[in-house]
Amino acid sequence: MSASLFSGTYQEARQRFLEAARRADTAVQHHVHPLKGAAGEEIGTDTALLGPSDADKLFIVSSGTHGPEGFSGSACQLAILNDELAKRAADRGIALLLIHAVNPFGFSHLKRTNEDNIDLNRNFNDFAAPYPDNPVYEQIHDLLVPKAWPPSPENEQQLGAAMARLAGQRNPGVSSGQARHADGLFYCGTAPAWSNHTIRSILRTHGTKRRHIAWIDVHTGLGPYGHGEKIFGRHSEATTKRARAWWGSDLIVSTATESVSPRTFGHITGCAPEECPGVAITPTTLEYGTVPNPVVRGALRGEAWLAGHPDAPEPVARAIRRSVRDAFYVDADDWKGMILGQFRALALQTINGLAAEQ
Ligand SMILES: [Zn+2]
Fold first, then answer.
1. How far apart are CA 8 and CA 126, in angstroms?
2. pLDDT in tens, 312-350
3. CA 101, 107, 113 angle in degrees (round to 5)?
4. Least crowded by CB within 10 Å, which of 213, 223, 279, 316?
5. Nearest residue to 15 (alpha-carbon basis) of 126, 146, 107, 147
């Protein structure tokens, strides 16, 4: 049953989300993206608001910040729409906002980055100030994005040696974000992307009048198979204390060495305090493990190479897209069950936590 909540394409995921949202009698809004999807379809970020719209507490669940990571986030959102969770939240004075496909272009075209090779989780920064240097990424960029695809054995060998040398480097780490290579991985862009503007406008519409906002942004691709790590950014002591009270001490602060991810700059949930000043915000990134890290890295390298070679032969492009999908979405029932089970537990903890706040 749980596996059936996962869709095979963005188009299917969007259609099922919108149908379930209509059946649940929610307020739906569409933010249509200027470009088309992989099958020529309209793409966009859709929102569904459930429960008491004027509630002073709001629980946000967002999906697809990193394109095909949206297969899991979308299934979690569909689970909410098909479940009694929203009613449970509503009974406790909490509204639920589902943001479907933050990066609809990447979701449909099977790429983690957006239409401009921007990593959206590095794009929510202050572009008036310089993006932090990333000397660790600088050491490895030329090896990460190879001249030819597939990469030569020499390239693989040199990259393996460089990764081993940099393995202990964190904060910044290779994936913290970088501003110098538009053709590279973890690129922050030079201005707020379409998705950045869209998310901020959704927050202004739905968030500014609340007292409390909890936000779970669902991701995949890091960590042990099927394990959901609750990654938490650097926040005030009060926010950290509140988050631990709701979600437990297995909340992992992203600057800690045990986190699956180094600290990143320009994180999506960082815009919530900017757009909703005075509101108590409690955010987490729920990060599910998929396949071993070198496999994920190989897929991302292919994605970056393909972005720089739009004239690549169709079979090569198709194989790369497929490898990206497989790196972020495991099409297996045990994995899907783990995703939904852990999501449900975290969602219930969030509802209980929000309900207990004054
Ligand atoms: Zn992600």
1. 36
2. 999 999 999 999 999 999 999 999 999 999 999 999 999
3. 100
4. 316
5. 107
Spell out the domain ranges in the chain.
2-356
| Mean per-residue pLDDT, 90-102 | 97
Distance CA 49, CA 21 (A): 9
Distance 347 CA to ligand 1 centre (A): 19
Backbone phi and psi for residue 229, each to the nearest 5 degrees, phi listed first: -95, 130
For ligand 1, the distance from its centroid to the CA atom of residue 183, given in whole angstroms, is: 18
Rounded CA-CA distance 329/7 in Å is: 10
pLDDT, one tens digit per residue, over 131-179 is: 999 999 999 999 999 999 999 999 999 999 999 998 877 778 899 999 9
Cis before residue 150, ω within 30 degrees of 0?
Answer: yes
For 272-292, the DSSP string reads HHHHSTTSEEEEEEEEEE-S-
CATH number corresponding to 2-356:
3.40.630
Judged by DSSP in three states, 85 sits in: helix
Q: How far is C-alpha 294 from the chain's CA centre?
A: 20
How many CA atoms are closer than 13 Å to the CA of 245, on its beta-carbon side?
14
299 Cα to the center of ligand 1, angstroms: 14
Residue 311 CA to chain centroid, in angstroms?
A: 28
Q: Which residues, at least 6 apart from 7, have a Cβ–Cβ distance to it below 8 Å?
A: 13, 16, 71, 74, 75
pTM over 0.90: yes
Q: Is 221 left (phi over 0), alpha (psi -120 to 50) or beta?
A: left
270 Cα to the center of ligand 1, angstroms: 15
**Spatial separation of the C-alpha atoms in residues 187 and 145, rounded to whole Å:** 12
Cβ distance 268 to 102 under 8 Å?
yes
